[in-house]
Specification:
With 80 residues, the protein is α+β, with helices and mostly antiparallel strands. It contains three helices and two strands, in the order E-E-H-H-H. Strand 1 and strand 2 form a beta hairpin.
Length: 80
């Protein structure tokens, strides 16, 4: 499995630890699994996790993965 890079990073603000730049699908999956607040693990979080994993497997595009990650971050109030 090869990493899939975004055309532009997604900046996510994890208070109080600060902003985190997510530049690839692997980083997105790691962020969604390890740093995402429990309170914000909703339908948009599940969708982002699934689409980013699918992109790593070559089933989805990095554009779709980045879009769903941004949507999840916005829904959770984490988009910087």
């Amino acid at each position: 499995m090869n990493d899939v890079w975004f055309s532009e990073p997604v900046v996510i603000d994890f208070e109080p630890s600060g902003q985190h730049r997510v530049s690839s699908c692997f980083e997105a999956v790691e962020c969604l699994d390890q740093r995402w607040p429990r309170r914000a693990r909703d339908r948009t979080w599940r969708s982002a996790s699934r689409v980013c994993r699918d992109a790593l497997d070559g089933l989805r595009s990095p554009v779709e993965a980045r879009k769903t990650l941004r949507k999840a971050a916005k829904s959770a109030g984490l988009l910087a």
